[in-house]
Design a protein that fits this description.
The complex is a heterodimer of chains A (300) and B (517). Chain A contains 13 helices and no strands. Chain A has 300 residues and is mainly alpha-helical. Chain A has one domain: Orthogonal Bundle (MetI-like fold). Chain B has 517 residues and is of the alpha+beta class. Chain B has 2 domains: 233 residues, 3-Layer(aba) Sandwich (D-Maltodextrin-Binding Protein, domain 2); 210 residues, Dipeptide-binding Protein, Domain 3 (Dipeptide-binding Protein, domain 3). In chain B, a hairpin with a 6-residue loop joins β2 and β3. Chain B starts with a helix and ends with a strand. The chains are: A mainly alpha (300), B alpha+beta (517).
Chain lengths: 300, 517
């Protein structure tokens, strides 16, 4: 892991910090360049898009329903991507959908990351009964089908943005826990931890200062996988009509609403579908590249 | 590591994937008319399933005492030869001779009495109580004469006995299976018995949830006002995805579909082998508002708030631009073609400013938040919600299946709901306005005066008196803005160009009138 990368090498150049080594590797990585560019563009669009294209994504105009996009013969720049079935601007809804998808993605990963890492580190470091208890929790969590549980909870409590974030966040922590647990177990017997224990460091100090920084690599990899997972899960729930509440937009919801237009207006599915595929692909490419970069000897 | 992602992706894709089309036998060359809708049909007995598809099937398989000609609206005796009102509460039918059930048995008065005496029983489990609840008893007078005794004068009786109350042979339900019911008790599942009727088509095969095959009844009685069936076989199939239905229609796997979205009608009509026609239906869309405060102290109790809601919604735009051909904006709480449905009531033209002013008067200058329940046609509900949001009423949309909404709605827990009601196709205001304002579980106004007028209107024989009473009730409902009527539904039908079939304003398909060109 990154501990090995921290060892000074006998390369004649000045020694570099492990972070700098990883970053250098990352920037050279082809997958990172492609994935990072796409991800960057989508994040940029989500942040500045609604300012550059200030039409209200919720304002309806029933007289101008299902307007065609600008590239077809009758399209206008008034609605570059056309309008939806209630005459709402499709581009504005797409940009709002990007915000929703990314917000849900990042916040759920933050939530599940904190839960999963906390449990994993505790299980790996303390071992014994705590490990047994946490393993039990992880096993229970793994037996629950994610989509089904999310569907039931959202159907009972209603789907709103905060509910979705909490529900998805509470469901996707298992991989964080499994990965940090085994990584912590390996690190716990290492010399630098034993030394820290020997000089009487407090447990919080050992966990937060010695242990956690060495887990960043695997955590970032897991985070990218779960980010893609959360984005898809939100899209699936929205597609089934249990995701974000109207008038809020989401890419999954846009695909669902366009389903009945597949035959005569295929662009209505392609417009939200393409960035959704691109986003998930980009996150996976970036995750792949990070894994290669933080592994000591190229591919682990 | 990636398998969970893939699973989520698959779940996402699953909804979008169309079902693989089955090998279909449709069209003129096979003399087989195949029609499809999205509903899953679990029973084809109209008394036990009031899905529109089953109403259509019943019109092909079964006959009723009376018949309303779908093209002219005229009432004609069908299984009956003639009828007369003996007194205000007694209706006597003389039966037609030589009518045979599909099993060869001849129809007589015993069969009619058996069918209605079974259906009228409170524990018969019949789903549309309105159609049979008026009957006190049915008596056999002679082998070809029956008398219906009504509980109260029932001017709409002839309407209830037309098309939607099929006659079965005596003993029809004797072999109904017993199934476990509520509270561990066994109950009879009458709906499981395949209907035995006298109609122009007979049941050949019924696969619950997927298909129904009917074949021509070559023994159908000659002078039926329904005429003689022409097409040999009718096949019904359930196809949940409307896009798949359209694709099959275009490629010849289907001959008839309905519910084509208005925005696709033009494109579909341009296909060389498809005819597209729209027609009005009796289904009305409206907002149910809890004026009586059954669900607690909500803003709906204030008349200004209810008026504000009525002014906030552009029902003309929803009706014309969103619902499309066949749909009309409504002003009163009934379908205008229904007897007694007065449209001479207070209108609330679209006026968002006035709505805002009224909200301010009511003490809600910044609007308020309220859950909005709905179960049908989500885009229509979203359009309504957007209009309300524009004047400051933020709705929390709770879109449920009808089965899930019915409970809370009838228990009085829903302050605001976007509902629709088809009146079972009955062209009498007793089937619409009375359903919601006569103190039933669906009544959220609980206005004693309105209830009194409607009770009287439902049980008065004199047509002019009835009109006056319904008019009074509808006027007060509009003045108080108890409910907000929105629009009537239209239906767009698309069918094989080689098919000659009348498109009628009753949300039905009369396949017994269809011919190949």
């Amino acid at each position: 892991m990154s501990v090995t990368a921290a060892m000074p090498t006998d390369v004649p150049r000045a020694p570099q910090s492990p972070g700098a080594v990883a970053l250098r590797r990352l920037l050279r990585h082809g997958n990172f360049r492609i994935g990072g560019t796409i991800l960057g563009l989508i994040i940029l669009a989500a942040i500045v898009g609604p300012w550059l294209w200030p039409l209200d994504p919720a304002s309806q105009d029933l007289g101008h329903r299902l307007a065609v996009p600008v590239w077809s013969a009758k399209g206008t720049w008034l609605h570059p991507f056309g309008t939806d079935q209630l005459g709402r601007d499709y581009l504005a809804r797409l940009l709002q959908g990007a915000r929703v998808s990314l917000t849900i993605g990042f916040l759920t990963v933050l939530l599940s990351g904190v839960i999963g890492t906390g449990l994993g580190v505790a299980a790996g470091y303390f071992g014994g009964r705590i490990d047994v208890a946490i393993n039990f929790l992880i096993t229970i969590r793994l037996t629950l089908p994610v989509v089904l549980v999310a569907l039931v909870v959202v159907a009972v409590y209603g789907g709103s943005l905060p509910t979705l974030i909490v529900v998805i966040g509470l469901l996707l922590w298992d991989r964080f826990a499994v990965v940090t647990r085994s990584a912590t177990q390996q690190l716990a017997s290492r010399d630098f931890i034993i030394s820290a224990q020997a000089i009487g460091s407090s447990i919080p100090r050992i966990l937060f200062v010695e242990l956690l920084p060495n887990l960043i690599g695997p955590l970032v990899v897991v985070a990218t996988i779960e980010l893609a997972h959360a984005v898809l899960l939100e899209a699936a729930l929205s597609f089934l009509g249990l995701g974000v509440k109207p008038p809020l937009s989401s890419w999954g919801l846009m695909v669902a609403e366009a389903k009945n237009q597949l035959l005569f207006r295929p662009w209505m599915i392609a417009i939200p579908g393409t960035p959704l595929v691109a986003l998930v692909l980009a996150i996976n490419l970036v995750g792949d590249a990070i894994r290669d970069a933080v592994a000591a000897d190229g591919r682990a | 590591m990636m398998n969970k992602n893939i699973w989520a992706a698959m779940a996402f894709a699953a909804g979008a994937v169309c079902l693989a089309p089955q090998a279909a036998m449709a069209g003129k060359s096979n003399d087989t008319l195949t029609w499809a809708t999205a509903s899953e049909v679990d029973t084809i007995d109209l008394y036990y399933q009031n899905l529109r598809e089953v109403v259509i099937m019943a019109h092909q398989m079964c006959d009723t005492l009376m018949h309303r000609d779908p093209r002219t609206g005229e009432y004609k005796p069908l299984l009956a030869e003639s009828f007369k009102w003996v007194d205000d509460k007694t209706l006597e039918f003389k039966l037609r001779h030589g009518v045979k059930f599909h099993n060869g048995k001849e129809l007589n008065a015993e069969d009619v009495a058996y069918t209605f005496n079974h259906a009228r029983k409170p524990d018969s489990g019949v789903v549309t109580r309105l159609l049979v609840d008026w009957i006190e008893n049915v008596e056999v007078v002679s082998p070809d004469t029956v008398r219906f005794k009504a509980k109260a004068p029932t001017p709409a009786a002839i309407e209830y006995l037309s098309g939607i109350t099929p006659v079965y042979p005596k003993g029809h339900y004797d072999n109904a299976p017993s199934v476990p019911g509520a509270a561990g008790k066994m109950r009879r599942d009458y709906g499981a018995v395949v209907p035995m009727c006298t109609g122009p088509y007979k049941v050949k095969e019924f696969k619950p949830g997927s298909s129904v095959t009917l074949v021509k009844n070559t023994d159908y009685f000659k002078d039926s006002p329904k005429g003689q069936p022409s097409i040999g076989t009718l096949v019904y199939r359930t196809i949940p995805d409307t896009e798949t239905q359209v694709a099959e229609l275009v490629t010849g796997g289907l001959d008839w579909i309905w519910g084509v979205p208005p925005e696709n009608a033009k494109q579909l009509a341009s296909m060389e082998n498809v005819t597209v026609k729209a027609a009005p239906t009796t289904r009305i869309s409206f907002l149910s508002l809890d004026a009586a405060g059954r669900s607690g102290d909500t803003p709906m109790k204030k008349q200004q708030v209810r008026e504000a809601i009525a002014y906030a919604i552009d029902r003309k735009a929803i009706s014309h631009d969103l619902v499309g051909e066949g749909s009309e904006p409504l002003v009163s709480m009934c379908y205008p073609a229904q007897f007694g449905c007065s449209t001479d009531v207070k209108d609330y033209p679209y006026n968002p400013q006035k709505a805002k002013d009224l909200l301010k008067e009511a003490g809600f200058p910044d609007g308020f938040e309220i859950p909005l329940y709905a179960y049908r046609d989500r885009p229509y509900t979203e359009a309504v919600a957007n209009y309300l949001r524009a004047v400051g009423i933020k709705t929390d949309l709770r879109f449920l299946q009808w089965k899930a909404l019915r409970g809370p709605l009838q228990e009085g827990k829903v302050a605001m709901a976007h509902l629709s009601w088809g009146s079972q196709g009955v062209l009498d205001a007793s089937a619409s306005v009375s359903n919601y304002f006569e103190g039933s579980v669906d009544d959220y106004a609980r206005d004693e005066e309105v209830k009194k007028w409607l009770d009287a209107a439902d049980s008065t024989i004199d047509p002019n008196k009835r009109k006056e009473l319904y008019g009074k009730a509808l006027k007060k409902i509009a003045d108080k803005a108890y409910f907000v009527p929105l629009f009537s539904y239209g239906r767009t039908y698309a069918f094989n160009k080689e098919l000659d079939i009348p498109v009628t304003p009753d949300e039905l398909a009369h396949f017994y009138l269809a011919k190949w060109k």
